[in-house]
Amino acid sequence: MSDRAGLRAPFLALALVLASALPALGQAGGGLGSQTLGRSYWFLFLAYAIAWALVLGWVVSIARRLARVEKELEDPRET
Amino acid sequence: MTYLRQVGIIVWKDLVVEVRTGERTLSMAGFTVLVGILFNYAVNQARVPIQDVAAALMWMTLVFAGMLGLGRTFQLEAEEGAFQGILLSPAPKDAVFLGKVVANFVLLAVVTLLLMAVFGLFFQLDYGQSPLGLLGVLGLGMLGFVSLGTLFAAVSTGTTMKETLLPILLFPLLVPMIYFGATATNALLDGRPVAEISGNLRMLGAFALVAVASGTTLFRFVVEE
Amino acid sequence: MASPIKWRALTAGIAGVVGIVVLHWMVFFWVPTEATMGVIQRIFYIHVPAAWVAFMAFGVVALCSAIYLWLGDERLDMMAVSAAEGGMVFTTVVLLTGPLWGKIAWGTYWVWDPRLTLTLLLWFIYLGYFMVRAATESPERGKRFAAVVGIVGALDIPLIHLSVVWFRSLHPGPVVLKPEGPSLHPQMLATLLTGFGVFTVLFFSLMAYRFGLERARRAAAARAAGRLRPAGA
Fold first, then answer.
1. Would residue C76 count as lying in a domain?
2. Domain residue spans in chain B?
3. What is the mean pLDDT of chain B?
4. Chain C residue with minimum CA distance to B154
5. pLDDT for C182 beyond 50
6. Domain of A37, in residue numbers
7. What residues of chain A score a pLDDT lower than 70?
8. Which residue of chain A is at minimal alpha-carbon distance from C202?
9. CA–CA distances in Å: residue B196 to residues B146, B207, C175
10. Is A55 among the domain residues?
11. Is the residue at A14 inside a domain?
């Protein structure tokens, strides 16, 4: 049970971070200034989001695989 | 038996097989001519005179044709993924590797000469300025190509993907050869003197050296049980 | 599960998170905006550290691969594959953040920038490393093949680097704006160095984590192999 929570937490965190950017989507066109300036901010955010998504994705991938292997090791299978 | 003689025997064996069956040479030669024909129709000669891209086409053709031949280098020796044919041979593994490289080089040299003739004919290329320089550039490039190709041919033959893995393994590593080779070839076809391309030649030489040295050293790890 | 390892992992993890928070504060609130490129230049502070890790990781892969072939110690192969996975992740980061920066700074997503091109080729060399590992029937052979790919790749990278740089010098594209300007502003340097530090720590801690997975996997495989042997054989 705690395994699942531990695995879901990063996804939740990422979703919150990305959700906080939604207002920026709306403003990308005008609210932040000229069109170009808006796109700069959006791309900058995207770059950081992608970078951390990839790193976090890797961490989660390792965690899942580890959980699977540990389950296999703990489970005394009879032939 | 001296080392050189062992290498020579392997070269001889492979070339004899090739002369008898002619499989690899025929497919590489046929490929070269046919690709030349396809290029004629593929290049928009209203926009760009084909001579301007001839160097690029030559190098890419050699790479693709080479892949056809290189992939089958260890076909005889590798049954079901094991390299019994090589492991049982009394020759040291690096001698086997060098023998294979020389044999492959001879095959590819033949194809290169054919390429120069055919592309020269199809695209009205002028080799007059420095034909030897051109041969030198192509030869040096092919040496590096064949060395890396032979090493990775052994690797790919040992996998379930066989020759289909070879491009993925080989192509990223060929960038230096393609860049320096095609640049030098372009210069020579343009009529520049060989002295001008000495930098490119040196890089091609470095590439060939790294390829041969690493192949000779690492081949034994590829074929061991 | 050994306690001291868990404590070390936890400390590394916390250090990593703290480092990431500090880095982001520096990048978004402290470092000044670059004069010519504006806000987008801040990608620099994760793009360059990621590139540093991508190539350093491959160096680790090559070194471990060479020693693995020489000594045959399984742990070296385990280190190599752990470093390779991390290296590939950070290489992907470089390849995705670079074009985003380029689109704003140069106007297009791809201009054969020497460093990006080299990174793209590195990505494919990593791909070859994993494909060769996976495509063999005997895992032992897969490890040896991968080691060969790692070593040859590392030897070729300097030559590829020269090719892509020479190419660029002869075919200059849109004006390549240096990320630093005439010389690196001290605050930019500090932020960049922090980025290097954080990413390096992150890489090695995650590589250790991945190493732990590899160890568990091999223990499980050994156990399974043990069971397959008929009793008394």
1. yes
2. 3-223
3. 92
4. C145
5. yes
6. 2-74
7. 1-37, 76-79
8. A55
9. 26, 19, 28
10. yes
11. yes
Least Cα distance to B178 among C107, C137, C121, C55 occurs for C121
If you measure CA to CA, which chain A residue comes closest to C92? A54
The answer to whether the beta carbons of residues C161 and C153 sit under 8 Å apart is no
Domain count, chain A: 1
- This model of the complex carries an ipTM of 0.92
Q: Is residue C229 part of a domain?
A: no
| Of C135, C152, C167, Cβ closest to residue B160 | C135
> Into how many domains does chain C fold?
1
**Whether the Cβ atoms of residue B206 and residue C159 lie closer than 8 Å to each other:** yes
Q: Give residue A13's pLDDT.
A: 64
B-C Cβ pairs (cutoff 8 Å, strict)? 87
Distance CA C105, CA A39 (A): 11
Rounded average pLDDT over C48-55: 95
pLDDT given at position C170: 73
> Chain C contacts of A47, Cβ < 8 Å?
43, 46-47, 96-97, 100-101
Please give the average per-residue pLDDT across B198-215, as a whole number. 96
Selected residues 151-170 of chain C with any CB under 8 Å from a CB in chain B = 151-153, 155-156, 159-160, 162-164, 166-167
Domain span including residue C120: 41-172
Higher pLDDT, C33 or C170: C33
Q: Give pTM, 2 decimals.
A: 0.88
Q: Is residue C109 part of a domain?
A: yes
Q: How far is B178 from chain C (nearest CA, A)?
A: 9
Residues from chain C contacting residue A58 (CB–CB below 8 Å): 85-86, 89, 206
Closest by CA position to C159, among listed B218, B173, B137, B146 = B173
Say if C229 is an interface residue toward chain A (CB within 8 Å): no
Residue C102 domain-assigned?
Answer: yes
Q: What is the 3-state secondary structure (H, E, C) of B155-178?
A: HHHCCCCHHHHHHHHHHHHHHHHH
